[in-house]
Structure formats: structure tokens, C-alpha cells
Amino acid sequence: MKSTEGSLDHDHHRRRSAAMSKCFSRSSTSQIEHLVHLNAQKLCDKVLARQNSAPFAIVQAYSCFTGDIISHYCFGDSDCYLEQDDWEPNFRMLVDNFERNLHIFRHIPGLATLVERVPLTLTNLFSTEMKTIATNFKKSDGSITWSVGKVPTILSAILSSNVPPPEKTLRRLTGEAVSLMGGGTESTSATLVLLTFHLLSNPNRHKRLHDEISAITTDPLQLPDWKALEKLNFFSAVIQECLRLLPGVSGRSPWIATHEDLIYEGKLFSSADSLAPSLTYTIPRGFPVSISTCILHTNETIFPNAKDFVLDRWLDENGNINRELERYLLSFSKGSRQCIGRQLALCEVYVCAAAMILRVFPFLELYQTSRIDVDYDHDELIGKPSSRSNGMRVQVVDRSREPEMKT
Ligand code: HEM
Hints:
Layout: H1 10-21, H2 26-31, H3 33-48, E1 56-57, H4 58-75, H5 91-107, H6 111-116, H7 120-126, H8 128-140, E2 147-148, E3 151-152, H9 154-159, H10 170-200, H11 203-214, H12 226-230, H13 233-245, E4 255-256, E5 262-267, E6 278-283, E7 288-289, H14 293-297, H15 323-326, H16 342-360, E8 364-367, E9 378-380, E10 382-384, E11 393-396
Antiparallel strand pairs: 1-11, 2-3, 4-7, 5-6, 8-11, 9-10
The structure holds protoporphyrin IX containing FE.
Protoporphyrin IX containing FE (HEM) binds next to α10 and α16.
């Protein structure tokens, strides 16, 4: 496995992760925030230009936004999905294909190794998206000087790190780039889709959020920075609830503690019941352990009415974010294998959602879309809606009319 994510051995994983982790800290993310703002505004312009055109799948639009940012940060040059006439092709199409077939790879050991052996030149013949990655490599020519402002790109950070030469080959870096592009494209756009649905289907909610963001914004084309947006309580509650309902990785990722036994201490039935008998399990080192984020996120004891979009659960009596509940939110996983792109994802969601809420949502309507088109139905690595769904579609209404902001 060529990516950090696919490294089985924990020490190997740690070394690979360390080579690029500085690119994903909160302060590095702030340094590329201008890219996020730029692309969020480009996305709004492109959606608004669809006035009176045919309805379209908003997930493709958001994937162009996320794909442009992560490709720019990886290679120093974006894939320019937002600049093409339509929303497709984009990297999500490749990811989606991969996810639909993932179960086959899980059940046929060795298939992944076989696929890995296919020469890149052959892969490029069949996949436009893989070809884009190859072209990006050629453009950057393996150079370690590519940068976004003063921030090194992710690949240049790996190339300039002290990992040994086999970690810097074209093949290994292609594997890493595919993992970064995949991770950086889909989960974030899926979160934005869910947020769009729950705001467009509830005008009161949209109005409240519009007012909250407007109160700290003088010009929707010059949004406040991500750290200021994060301080908005209602906005944060909306994002937390979206993350809860669309847990990043819906399947179980099996992890193995190699050096220590795991001691599990809990209560039978319910941790809230003080009379429930206590129990202790010891899971010997070497055994795979996994947890289902979906099951945790829909636990009725922790999240009552778990299937519903309930914002009050995230707000305390003073309207501040309920930090206590956050520890049960496992969207980005925890520990050494947690999502490396967490800060970037949050920055993208806050900035993009703020731009869309202020500039686009007043002119956007759902088109033949209901909860079946967004609700979790099955696992394809990330949670997907029912295969009977046509996807969440929207259309831009006549912008000459006064935007409707019902109370
Ligand atoms: C809302 C958006 C996102 C969610 C919910 C999410 C969720 C997750 C989760 C749950 C994992 C752990 C996977 C596992 O246990 O097997 C993960 C890993 C990862 N994510 Fe994200 N992610 C998001 C956005 C991003 C972004 C923007 C990037 C940008 C590069 C990214 C890159 C990665 C990578 C590279 C890994 C593998 C990390 C490792 O194994 O060390 N993700 N993500």
C-alpha cells in the first residue's frame, strides 16, 4: 500500500504521516485559507450563473470546490474543475467508482496488490482523473520548490522530509496523492450537501443562520476568516449535526494494538444506569478491534431522536456550543489514524457554507429532492444514500426577484 492511510505497520504509518502532518496543522491551514475563500467565491459565481438552467446535482459542484483546493495544496496547481464549463469531470467520479467496488477488494485478498502492479501508463489510458494526477506530477517535475504563497505543497513537504528514498518514488507519491485527493474531495463535499439540504428544506433555519453570519460580515465577497466563523454557535451546531448524521467513514476500520492489551471497562446495558452491572474485557494484543461511527452517532441514549436533524442538542441553555457532547462525535476518528485533513475540512465547510448561505441559498431551490436523497442508507467506505435516489438536485431561480427569506 503506497499511501499513509494504507500503511499496515503502525511505525511505518507514523513515519509517513509525520512527513506531511505539518501541512495539516491549524496554523498551516490558516496560511492556505485564502485558497479556500477564493474557491468558495468561484463556486458561488458558477452556481449563480446557472440561473434558469436545468437542475443539477450539487454534490458535483461541491466536489469541484474541494477537488480544486486539495489538488492545489498537493501539487501547487489546481485541477481547475471550477473553471471548466460544467461540473464534470471531477475527482469525485474516480472516488465514487472506487468506493462502489471497495467491497470486492475487501473480500478478495491480493486483488489490491494485483491492481497496484498495473503500470501507471495503462491506468492513465482508462482514467482521466488518474491522468490528471500524472500531468500534475509532470508539471511539478518532482521539484521541491513548489509553494502556495509561503506554504510548501504537501508533496514538496514529503520530498523535503527525511523519509528514505523509497518513500519518495513516483509510484509511492502517486499512491499518496490519490489518497489525499480522495480524502480531500468527497467527505467534505458530502457534508456540504447535507448542510444544503437541511437549510433549503427549512427556511426558518436558513434565515437564522443567514442573520447570524450577516451580523459579522460587511461584504459577502470578503468573508470573515474561518476562526471568526467557528465562534458562531448556531452555525457550529448546524455543522456538528451534519457531521453526526454523515459520519466520515461509515464502515468499520479494524485497528490492531500490537504492543499492549486493551482493557475495556463499561456497564452492561446503559452507562447512565448506576445499577447496571459493570464489566471488564481484556482484548489481547494482536486482535483487530473496530467501532461503527454510524451506530455510535445514532445511539438514542446519547443523541435522542437520533434520526432527526436536531440543533438544540448542540446548544446549552445559554445558546453556547455543548462541548460535552463533542466527545461522542467520531466523524474524523480519533488517535493516530484519525483524519489528517480535519482542520482543512472544517475550514472548507465553514467558509464555503457561509459564502453559499449569504450569496446563493436565497436563490436556490431543491429539485425533486427529499430525505431519501441525503439520508445514510448503506456503507461504501463513506455513508451513501439509497441507490434508488437520483441524488440531491437543486436549481437556481430567477435572481431578479427579491430573495425569499421567510421567518
Ligand atoms: C468532513 C470531511 C472529512 C471527514 C468526515 C473525514 C473523515 C476521516 C476519517 C473518519 C478518517 C479515518 C479513516 C479510518 O479510520 O480508516 C480519515 C482519514 C483521512 N482523511 Fe479525512 N475526512 C474529511 C476530510 C478530509 C480532508 C479535507 C482531507 C485532506 C487531505 C482528508 C484526508 C484524510 C487522509 C489522508 C486520511 C488518512 C489518514 C491516516 O491514515 O493517517 N480528509 N478521514
